[in-house]
Amino acid sequence: MAPERPTAGFTTLPDLALRTLGGSVIAASDESFAEKESLIRPGRPAFRPETFGHKGQVYDGWETRRRREPGHDWAIVRLGLPGAVRGVVIDTAWFTGNHPTHASVEAAALDGHPSPAELLDARWSEIVPRIPLRGDAEHPVEVADDARYTHVRLSMFPDGGIARLRVHGEARPDLSVYDGLSLDLAALHNGGLVTACSNAFYSSPNNVIAPGLARHQAEGWETARRREEGNEWLVIRLAGRGVIRLAEIDTTNLVFNAPAAVTLTGLDGEREVELLPRTRLQPDTPHRFRLAHAGPVTHVRVDIHPDGGLARVRLHGHLTG
Question: What is the mean predicted confidence (pLDDT) over 75-99?
Fold first, then answer.
């Protein structure tokens, strides 16, 4: 039986804890049966029945021993993208007779690079109160808290297995380290976010501003085949108001489904400015375009003509605030 799936709107936001975005499970009370690192692994949890190791059935998740004393188990996750948490998903996929009865989530904000011992002594705020859990199901919970956090602590009561922890929200990094330097104003890890998109049929548009290079076309943004007039597009909210000097438009892995051309338009309040006129693209190719000085903008609209996909969009420049 496949696990239940949530429909909460916050799940369209980036998973701030995801391992591929720099997240790390840095401490746990116990991981006797299955490793804590699985909590933030990308993708759906896998399962092969009757697959036994020396510790028992193999699970794609975090599983603790049967607790014989008072207390509960916990795991601390450093967010790959510090930010405001808008919602959490606690997934017990494939754990049925061994899932916890309840769980809660706390969050903390610490500067620098704290050790596990320093985190245990930190001041934690409860963002998800203790909720009941079902086996083999996703549990989406909205979070009404606008504070910036760097770490979360998942507690399960009293013990058992949890497959994944998703922490969806908006990145709020410390950009002071870039004072006087250039940066990728569109990058997810710098606080960029895709706020609108015409079509996300095959994959999330936020993939185009994710870290690193796309390993295959599913790690980029790809639309359905357009059957009417017009073109597809997305809007990127920049890390801050800034001036863009260099645009990178990468169609790597898009061999027969790359767009024919791209247009970049800067937005600053009611003002629109052409950053890159309609320009031809090649399939499976990283493109780099120097841009003429056009003044500061807060958003960039990326139009692809007529449809297709992009692996990555990088918009290098300087913050003006």
Answer: 96
Work out the burial of residue 234: count CB atoms within 10 Å of its CB; fewer than 13 is exposed, 13-18 middle, 19 or more buried: buried
Query: In 10 A of CB 270, how many CB atoms?
Result: 5
* CA 315 – CA 249 distance, rounded (Å): 9
How many residues does this entry show for the chain?
321
Give yes or no for a contact between 219 and 309, defined as CB atoms under 8 angstroms apart. Answer: no
The predicted-structure confidence for 236-287, as pLDDT tens digits, reads as follows: 999 999 999 999 999 999 999 999 999 999 999 999 999 999 999 999 999 9
> How many domains, in total, are found in the chain?
2
What span, in angstroms and rounded, lies between the C-alpha atoms of 145 and 143? 6
CA 141, 143, 148, 149 torsion-angle sign: negative
CA atoms within 13 A on the CB side of 252: 17
Q: What is the pTM of this model?
A: 0.89
| Cα(266)–Cα(242) distance, integer angstroms | 10
Q: Measuring CA to CA, how many Å separate 293 from each of 2, 174, 192, 290? A: 53, 26, 21, 10
The whole-number pLDDT of residue 84 equals 97
Mean pLDDT over all residues of the chain?
A: 93
Q: How far apart are the first and last CA of the chain?
A: 52
Cα–Cα distance between 192 and 185 in angstroms, integer?
A: 7
In a domain, 3, yes or no: no
CATH number at residue 32: 2.60.120.260
Q: Could you tell me the CA-to-CA distances from 225 to 7, 201, 230, 231 in Å, in that order? A: 25, 9, 12, 10
d(Cα 230, Cα 306) in Å, to the nearest integer? 7
Q: How far apart are alpha carbons 55 and 63 in whole angstroms?
A: 11
Of the residues 121, 152, 171, the one at which a domain ends: 171
Rg, the chain, Cα only = 21
